[in-house]
Amino acid sequence: MKLPRFLSQLEPKVHDLLTNYEARHRAFVARARFSGPSLYFHKKALRLIDANAEAFADASYAMLVAWGMHRMGKGGAKMQAFERYLSSIRAQWKPIQELRRVKRQEMDEDRWSRLRGVFLRIDAMDGKTVLVANSKVLAHALPELVAPIDRQYTLRFAMGTKSASIPSQREIQATYFIELHRRLFHVVADDVGFQVKAEEWVRSRSCPWDTSILKAVDNCLVSGDTNAEA
Q1: Which of 64, 143, 167, 170 has an alpha carbon within 20 to 30 A of 203's alpha carbon?
Q2: pLDDT tens readout for residues 131-158
Q3: pTM summary value
C-alpha cells in the first residue's frame, strides 16, 4: 500500500526532535505531571514481562486502564473483557519472547513483519481503533523495540496537525505502527548523541518515566503537549 504522506515526510520532524530533545526532556521532567496509578502500573507491567503471560496480561491490563484506555459510561474508549485480552496475550507469548531477544539494531524485514503480526493479534480494545492500546501493550512487552503511540502527541507531532484521526482499518493502523517506529522512534533512538543522553537519563533515574531509550523518545514528544498521557 502507498504510505500516507505524513509518514513519508517525517525527516524534517525527526531533525527538529534531534535538535531540541534536551530542552523537550527538561520540559517533561519539570512538569512531572504523571504519577500515581499510571506510573505504578507502567513499572509493574515492565517487571512482569519476565514472569509469564498471565502475570503480564494482568499488569498490562491495569496499565491500559490507568493510561486512559477504558472509560465508564456510554461514551469513550472501551477495553475488551480481561479473559479475551489474556487469550490474545497467551497466543502471542511465544513470538513476543522471540522478539525480546532481538536488539533494536537487528530489526530486519522479517522481524518487522513478525512485530506487525503480533500487533495485529493483540485484542485489547472493544472497537476498531487499536493503534494506541496495542502500541502501549507492546511498549511494555518489548520496551527495547516499541514506544507507546498516542493520537494526542505522537500523531499530532508526526502529522503536524492539531487533531489526528486514526483510520478504522486494522491493517492501516499496523502500517502506522510499524512506519512510525522505523521512520521516527528508531531513527531518534539510533542517533549517537541521543543514545548517550538517553542512557544517562535511564541510569540516573531522576525522571521515573525514563525506563528505556524508546520511552525517553516518547517523553520528549509528550513534553510538547500538556494534555497528553504519558
Answers
A1: 64
A2: 999 999 999 999 999 999 998 889 999 9
A3: 0.92
